[in-house]
Amino acid sequence: MDKIIICGGNKLKGEVTISGAKNSALPILFSTLLTDEPVTITNVPPLADINTTVSFLNFIGKTVVKKGNTITARTLDKHKQYKHTAPYDLVRKIRASVLIMGPLLARLKRVDMSLPGGCAIGARPIDIHLNAFKKLGAEISVEGGYVKTFTKDRLQGAVINFRFPSVGATENILLAAVLAKGKTTINNAAREPEIGDLANVLNKMGGKITGAGTNKIAIDGVDKLYGFTHEVIPDRIEAATYIIAAAITKGEVILKKVIPQHLKFVTDKLIKCGLFIKETENTILAKWVKNLKPQSIKTEVYPGFPTDIQAQWMALMCLISGHTYIQENVFENRFLHVAELQRFGADITIDGKTVDIKGVEKFSGAPVMVSDLRAGAALVLAGLAADGKTTVSRIYHLDRGYAVFEKKLKKLGAKIKRIHNK
Ligand code: UD1
User: Fold this and answer.
1) Residue 315 has pLDDT above 50, yes or no
2) Which of 37, 45, 205, 320 has the fewest CB atoms in 10 Å of its CB?
3) pTM of structure
4) Is the beta carbon of 117 within 6 A of some atom in ligand 1?
5) Burial annotation 153-188 (CB, 10 A radius, 16+ → b, else e)
């Protein structure tokens, strides 16, 4: 397996262009199942999760081709039906494969899906998705590791009240209800920008969706959807990671192709820490000008502090003099990076869903292992700031979510390289 070697201590300086958002591109890719017309998606990030999804859609019966950052999808034989079974080998690789359910249920009235996989960050059940499909008229059973979902008639619009604003469930219900008969209302919907991006795509296809980006989304079902061209929004999680990279290395980084509004919660916190931030319409300058102050955070659903930045925030706070508390409120097991950060010399104590961090003066490079995508980013950030050599293993997790990570960091002046192990 490949490894990343970092010789830490270099201040990052320069410009980095942020890629398209993984968490937007994935649901948009699944939306291509809703039409037989040609589709073009641009600004798609070069990531393992995208390749997995492209293979998945090709298996189901679409013809999906990726060329650089552009993906085209077609239905070559309009009389041939999609497959309705999503097997273990494809589904286990990424959590987002659960988004196969909405479109296939809408178009084939049935889908058998192996229970999903993804990051090792908690139980990640799919009860919110399934309860909502039931409201739309689906019958559901679980047999032999498969969730079997079936509807005799076309899905029927309904009022759905989520017990929690799940991102994936909001997307799945949008993907199903857009072709349902009548009106669907989702109360307590997720408000993440990626939901807005998906709703924009569905509306370009001829859907009638209002309220995306608020906690109440209304979907007027339509009979047919059409082709579209769409540019994926910038990845706010990747962007936040580079801003923290500037902070942790006491550097100066300009991020290009970002939507600063999507990063408000993180940048506001960093300004309180003492980092200099200057924004234009689509760039952010992040510059270390003085010793930073600690800032405690609680992860929340959007527009709160993102759980996907919690690990990277922890790496930064470990090197700031004083006490920081971090509370993880979205996932129940998202502190796998703590033990690895301790290898650098971090002083962290876990108490249930909170960690207590006492800032240390410096990190020393160490061999560390990635447990999940964002934990991996935190370890790379720690390695960039540490004295000496850090070896990061199991980096396939990073390849799932960070486009050409070490290349972008190298361009900013990091001493970082990938070792290919055959
Ligand atoms: C998406 C993001 C992920 C991010 C997360 C929260 C994608 C591909 N992934 O994941 O990067 O960390 O949002 O911002 O977009 N839950 C249930 N039952 C359900 C569904 C979810 O209990 O049916 C729980 C989960 O276990 C978790 C919490 O709700 O504790 C949040 O999950 P959800 O918002 O669904 O996240 P994902 O869509 O999986």
Assistant:
1) yes
2) 37
3) 0.96
4) no
5) eebbbbebebeebbbbbbbbbbbbbbbbbeebbbeb
Pocket lining: 125 vs ligand 1, CB cutoff 6 Å: yes
> Nearest C-alpha to atom 22 of ligand 1 is from which residue?
125
In the chain, the domains with their CATH numbers are: 3-19+234-419 (3.65.10.10), 22-231 (3.65.10.10)
Distance 366 CA to ligand 1 centre (A): 31
| Residue 368 exposed, middle or buried by CB count within 10 Å (0-12, 13-18, 19+) | buried
pLDDT digits (tens, 9 = 90+) for 18-48: 999 999 999 999 999 999 999 999 999 999 9
Q: Quote the tokens at residue 367.
A: 């061999």
Residue 169 CB contacts under 8 Å (≥ 6 apart), including other chains: 126, 128, 129, 132, 162, 190
Q: How far apart are CA 314 and CA 335, in angstroms?
A: 10
Residue 369 CA to residue 198 CA, distance in Å, equals 34
Q: Using CA positions, which residue lies closest to atom 30 of ligand 1?
A: 331
The one-character DSSP state at 239 is H
Please name the residue that has the structure tokens 């390695």: 383
| 2 class by beta-carbon count within 10 Å (0-12 exposed, 13-18 middle, 19+ buried) | middle
What is the structure's pLDDT at 115?
Answer: 81
| 17 and 256 Cβ atoms separated by less than 8 Å | yes
Answer whether 353 contacts ligand 1 (Cβ < 6 A).
no
Longest Cα–Cα distance of the chain, Å, equals 66
Is 166 near ligand 1, meaning CB less than 6 Å away?
yes
71 forms beta bridges with 41, 66
* Angle at alpha carbon of residue 202, lines to 201 and 206, rounded to 5°: 115
